[in-house]
Prior knowledge:
The complex is a heterodimer of chains A (about 750) and B (about 60).
Chain A: E1 7-10, E2 20-23, H1 29-51, H2 59-86, H3 95-98, H4 110-121, H5 125-133, H6 138-165, H7 172-180, H8 182-211, H9 215-238, H10 243-266, H11 268-274, H12 278-294, H13 301-326, H14 337-341, H15 351-358, H16 367-372, H17 386-409, H18 413-420, H19 423-426, H20 430-438, H21 449-458, H22 471-483, H23 492-528, H24 542-565, H25 570-599, H26 607-629, H27 637-649, H28 661-702, H29 727-743
Helix pairs in contact in A: 1-2, 2-6, 2-17, 4-17, 5-17, 6-17, 6-25, 6-26, 7-8, 7-25, 8-12, 8-23, 8-24, 8-25, 8-28, 9-10, 9-11, 9-13, 9-23, 10-11, 10-13, 10-23, 12-23, 12-24, 13-17, 13-23, 15-25, 15-26, 18-20, 20-21, 22-23, 23-24, 24-25, 25-26, 25-28, 26-28, 27-28
Chain B: H1 4-21, H2 25-36, H3 45-58
Amino acid sequence: MRSPELVELVRTDPDRPPVAVIDRRPMTTGKRILFAVIALLAATAWALIAFVRGESVNGAYFVVAAVGTYVIAYRFYARLIEYKVVRPRDDRATPAEQYENGRDFAPTDRRVLFGHHFAAIAGAGPLVGPVLAAQMGYLPGTLWIIIGAVLAGCVQDYLVLWMSTRRRGRSLGQMIREEIGTVGGVAGIIGVFVIMIILLAVLALVVVNALAESPWGVFSVGLTIPIALFMGVYLRYLRPGKVSEVSLIGVALLILAIVAGGWVADTPWGAETFTLDKVTVAWLIIGYGFLASVLPVWLLLAPRDYLSTFMKVGTIMLLAVGVIVAQPQVHAPAVSSFAIEGNGPAFAGALFPFLFITIACGALSGFHALISSGTTPKLVQKESQLRLIGYGGMLTESFVAIMALVTAISIDQHLYFTMNAPAALTGGTPETAAAYVNGLGLGGTPATAGDIQGAADAVGEESIVSRTGGAPTLAFGMAQILGSFLGGSGMIAFWYHFAIMFEALFILTTVDAGTRVARFMLSDSLGNLGGPLRKFRDPSWRVGAWVCSVVVCGLWGAILLMGVTDPLGGINTLFPLFGIANQLLAAMALALVTCVVVKKGYLKWAWIPGVPLVWDLAVTLTASWQKIFSADPKLGYWAQHQAFRDARDAGETTFGTAADPAAMDAVIRNTFIQGTLSIVFAGLVVVVALAALWVCVRAIRAGSLPTSEEPDVPSKIFAPSGLVPTDAEREVAAEWDAWEAEHGERREKAPTHA
Amino acid sequence: MDLTTPRRAWRALTWYVTGVLGESDYERYVAHLRRHHPDARVPTVREYWRERHAEQDANPGARCC
């Protein structure tokens, strides 16, 4: 071992080997050179993305710029956060060690836990947002996904994970109440619930838009339910515990379902039976959410989750390989005119703040704070591993978002806008759509109706006009990338439906798990009101479970139906609300973290969570402000509301994109609900932020304030910190092996021993 | 040909996949019982998964968007 005098070994028990390694050795020259080379490569790729214009921008540059930046950020910025804020103490037992019960509290290998945590945080969000944001060109999205993740998203995930690990794995809501006080806590809990509802509705809307009028998609995604039921029964009665075996069978059946979807959609009866309109698909998804919420977990939710994990990791790796091998040419401009003028068809609003709202997951996602508090902290072995799991996990998600962006910007611009402009603009037919997109001044070869229909035929769909929501666009781009080197043009339809299937699988897994979580939140809150409602606290009380499930599904289902029937195009009006909700949750989490950092007396380092907090508040409150007060009806919900109201009062029967009085009433109602939600969200966050600010002021005056951190308990186990153990850590691990062999204390081990 | 390398790679892969999916949780639980509660009855795989799913029924975990 090199310079052992700079390595401190910490023991908590003189009879046992050390439990922590404090390594103060400087980097080796070789490592310095390696990081310098990585930094140089990343800088070159950034320069190519930012300054080279025209046809020569290659999709692979984005991968190099992203990965290089992540490596440098992880090695240097995350390390700074670790030294100055987290200050991990590996001689302190984590909740997993202290409360070990072999079930929810269990020290888990850091690499396994990384996979676990990543599977829990990654979903459809980082795939959908960047696709929509591609309307503003590739540069703004790339900058925000990478810089936002490094400075905001990863910081949030890492620090929330740290806080929860020091508090027995408490949830975000509980921590807000304990650290910021009752008022902030109540606002936080209501906020989490309302935000959850809107997230579920918008995610379900993305699935509806991908499946409506697509018999192939409906058939194959519909089959996932019987496949999951089969897997559930298999695991419970036939071969209990054989999770990977049943997952492989499930994935094979899934692939078969995709292929069979093509056959069925080709037959007249199949096309007739499975071609469903948006409203029908929406009702089916609401019904599914209700069933998933009341059925036992083993039958539907658990097997779906295995399938989804398998498909998630597999497909993301496939896409990464695809982008690197196919190296698609970028068709989007660096910055489009929509970014500046704010009149884009996929979503309205200028670059600031709406780009930062549209790309939430992948750069900064408040939802992760719910995952980082709760499950993961109860499994982590050592505090020093939090950097890998929290910061590293979010970097990986950011990488997924970059892949999605590259996929979207490599699609022909005319086809991109054909798919992403609402039907009110494209007119819904290839001819009108071609006329619309050719009038956008996109440059390049104009699209003909034949091109648009040809693109739809290639992926086995009736039409690709106005397939908004991001999922069909991503699937379309993925099909082109994968088809270019796997199976050729004959496989494009398969890859398209493969991508649709995996996105729908992701989203439905979030919808069913989310409905269940929201149901429990509701029954807990009702139970806490006391009196006869106390009965709601018992989760096995079936009536309570049914009532709460109906309420939760009714709430998100109503918003979903509102989006589906919206004459203005549901994604266009609802996606900003989704982004704002997610980012407002992030604001609550960052306010909590900042508050605790100040309370602990680390005022000098409060900027680490403070800068992303201020930025996030600026973005979300500006966006909320514009959505509430803007006089431009395209942007402001209330301006739109008033415009339609005036038109109706003036006795008009058609107005704007609403073709009849019923549609006008729908717009008036929808904008009222959307505007009200905007006000509620912004109000809740302002309450939490002000409460946090007040606690910070008190803490600064007092120098520091006590926090709800649990007292120290000495650790009795050892585990390395990073992905690859250092030489010093290997020596300690070997010492533990010898000690355990001698004392007959065998712990289960990884085959490639740490 | 040296067979130990592919075999080790396969073992590492199955260790990782079963770890992430939770398949090896049963063994972890049994090891925990043997170490800390040597007198406790060890549940069968079937019983373990029934209890675990019952627990999940009562405490749902969120999935991210």
